[in-house]
Amino acid sequence: QLQLVESGGGLVQPGGSLRLSCAASGFTLDNYAIGWFRQAPGKEREFVAAIRWNSGRTTYADSVKGRFTISKDNAKNTVDLQMNNLKPEDTAVYYCAATSGLLNLRIPGAYDYWGQGTQVTVSS
Length: 124
What we know:
The protein has no helices and eleven strands. Strands 2, 4, 5, 6, 9, 10 and 11 form a seven-stranded mixed beta sheet that branches. The protein has a four-stranded antiparallel beta sheet with strand order 1-3-8-7, with no helix packed on it. The model has no long low-confidence stretch (mean pLDDT about 95). The chain has strands spanning about 5, 10, 20-25, 35-40, 45-50, 60, 70-75, 80-85, 90-100, 115, 120. The relative contact order is 0.31. By secondary structure, the protein is mostly beta strands.
């Protein structure tokens, strides 16, 4: 069974850091692209970052560029999201998703598989 599981969420003060991890089971991430999205209460799910596994090419939302870094670990079959200089507006449930397609990676509908999400709360 194909499955994505996120981990690493929690409570952090403004300016702090967290590292999220997305682990894939039941399939390898070769030929897939992995995206991170987030959804705050009452808001639509929004794109955060994505990486194409084979090429390693990355793309980021403007709101996180320079603060967040997406990376992959071939040996572990995981994709991490390093989040630095966190702000209260980064508070949301963070989801990872996988797609084997070539559609726009910033669109949630482009993805075939989704994890259950992990809560990130930035508050003093």
